[in-house]
């Protein structure tokens, strides 16, 4: 089973972001119900091996500011005082190596940018908006289909 550990995100202005930016980019927008912060991608594994106690901070995650990874991913930045600690605890518990952790919520996988200047100006309009999400962490399964990924919560940490 394809697994990952993540925090689900509800973004009240997601539809507005899509409507405002879609004229300037072509890509695959993430289904609103699939928005999340990936703490750790696991891959093809047995879920029972990943059901353990994890110290989840009693705090909110701040979502603020749109940005890009190499003009290929549009995302909203995520931060909290202890979000890095959760990632490090996962790495330690599972004794695995992980890439640098940059907390974010992927909004769109970009295929092409139609007008970069207009896109960047539109993105600026959302940079002062701020939202908060509950710091909940789940083990998810991910089933890939031609219409997109289907996520299922398997276990709450």
Descriptive account of the structure:
It is a single chain. The chain is of the alpha+beta class. The chain has one domain (2-156): Cyclic Phosphodiesterase, Chain: A (Alpha-Beta Complex). Helices cover 18% and strands 45% of the residues. It has 3 helices and 9 strands. The chain has helices at 14-21, 83-94, 116-124, and strands at residues 2-8, 25-29, 36-44, 60-69, 73-79, 104-113, 130-134, 138-145, 148-156. The strands form 2 sheets. The chain has a 5-stranded antiparallel β-sheet. Strands 3-1-8-9 form a 4-stranded antiparallel β-sheet, with helices on one face. A hairpin with a 3-residue loop joins strand 4 (60-69) and strand 5 (73-79). The longest helix is centred in the middle third of the chain and has 12 residues, at 83-94. The mean pLDDT is 95.
What best-fitting shape do the alpha-carbon axes yield? globular
Low-confidence stretches: none
Biggest sheet record: 5 strands, antiparallel
Helix content: 10-25%
User: What is the CATH superfamily classification?
Assistant: Cyclic phosphodiesterase
Q: What name does CATH use for the topology? A: Cyclic Phosphodiesterase, Chain: A
Structural class: alpha+beta
H/E element sequence: EHEEEEHEHEEE
Q: What is the CATH domain class?
A: Alpha Beta
| Strands, total number | 9
Which architecture name does CATH use?
Answer: Alpha-Beta Complex
| Average pLDDT metric | 95
List the strand order in the largest sheet.
2-6-5-4-7
The percentage of residues in β strands lies in 35-45%
- The termini sit apart by 19 Å
Domain count: the total is 1
How many helices? The count is 3
Rg, Cα atoms, Å = 16 Å
């Amino acid at each position: 089973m394809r697994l990952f550990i993540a925090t689900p995100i509800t973004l009240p202005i997601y539809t507005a972001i899509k409507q405002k930016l879609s004229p300037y980019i072509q890509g695959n927008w993430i289904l609103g119900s699939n928005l999340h912060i990936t703490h750790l991608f696991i891959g093809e594994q047995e879920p029972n091996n990943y059901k353990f106690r994890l110290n989840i901070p009693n705090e909110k995650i701040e979502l603020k500011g749109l940005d890009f990874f190499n003009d290929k991913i549009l995302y909203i930045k995520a931060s909290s005082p202890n979000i890095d600690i959760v990632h490090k605890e996962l790495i330690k518990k599972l004794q695995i190596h992980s890439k640098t952790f940059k907390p974010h919520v992927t909004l769109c996988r970009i295929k092409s940018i139609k007008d970069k200047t207009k896109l960047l100006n539109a993105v600026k309009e959302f940079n002062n908006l701020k939202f908060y999400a509950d710091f909940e962490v789940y083990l998810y399964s991910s089933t890939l289909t031609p219409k997109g990924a289907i996520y299922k919560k398997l276990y709450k940490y």
